[in-house]
Amino acid sequence: MHFDYDQLRALTAILRSGSFDNAAAALGVTPSAISQRLKALEEQVGARLVLRANPCSGTPLGQRLARHAEDVALMEAQLLPQRSGPARISVAVNADSLATWLVPALASQPDLRFDLTIEDQDHSLRLLKEGRVAAAITTRAQPVQGCDSFALGALDYVATASPVFVQRWFADGVNAAALAQAPALIFDRKDDLQRAWALQETGASIALSGHIMPSTQAFVAAALAGMGWGMNPAALVKTALEQGALVALGGTPHFHTPLYWQVSRRLAPQLAGLTRALNNAAKVALVAPRSQNS
Fold this sequence. Notes:
Elements: H1 5-17, H2 20-27, H3 31-45, E1 50-51, E2 57-58, H4 60-79, H5 81-84, E3 87-93, H6 95-100, H7 102-107, E4 112-118, H8 125-129, E5 135-138, E6 147-161, H9 163-169, H10 176-181, E7 184-186, H11 193-202, E8 210-212, H12 216-224, E9 230-233, H13 234-243, E10 247-248, E11 254-264, H14 272-285
């Protein structure tokens, strides 16, 4: 099927900006022209592509077509940089990488415009498989079909809590019974990191309860405030641990989460600079993966 790229650009502009008016302003045309282009594209594919709301969002097919248009624009930008301008790339990243080591690598690529989706590193492959992103940081080494996978290293986490919290909940030590009762900090309902560490520490699969807190910075703040215990990136709590504001828990407080960079194979040449930048940043910020039982 041959697509009209003015129509595809209208679709991506709507999804990127959230409205027909904003898309029109971005492309320098009228809202009526945006509406006509989208209507023609929807008639061509025989399906709805945009959910009209505030903001507008894409149907699954609409998101895949928008990704296709971004991929083509990325390749055009490499071939004709003077005409195409900066290219946009959709990437799934985990919040902890974004808060600790990722931004300098992204900043080293001034010719790219990033559309980042925050997704747990254990689940970002789904976005790759669905065609909603061109690349992702994930915990899975096995590449998604059509992608290349690069090992980055491991993000070092530390199980931490405030001294007051430890005195209240872990006065008799960090054990399965205490962990089942103590409030945990959990990033979202897909976050399995705290449970995985508890299994490593105690050998028991524990049903944790606590606070859902989808923010890396709030995780640290909540631990400092004594709201709960949680797995924090070592780089973010180093000073607090040294000063005694936080305490490392258990006999093996560190937990390494291996990270991999998976990128669409057809875009690998265009994104080679970004891949190098990520590898260089990871060499400095990440650690060598190890067995969680070592």
